[in-house]
Amino acid sequence: MYNVLLVDDEPRTIHALEKNIDWRKCGIRKVFKARGMAEAIEFVNREKIEIMICDIEMPGGNGIQLLEWFRNNHKQINCIFLTCHPEFDYMRKAIQLRCYDYILKPIHYEEFVRVLSDLIGKMELSDNGIEMTAAKDWDKNNPEALWKSSYEKRDVELEIKKYIREHLVDNITVTDIAEAFHFNPQYLMRIFKKKSGMSIVEYITKTRLEMAQKILLETNLPIQEIANMVGYSDYAYFTRVFKKETGCSPRRFRMDKNNG
Question: Is residue 161 within 8 Å of residue 193, measured between CB atoms?
Answer without folding.
Answer: no
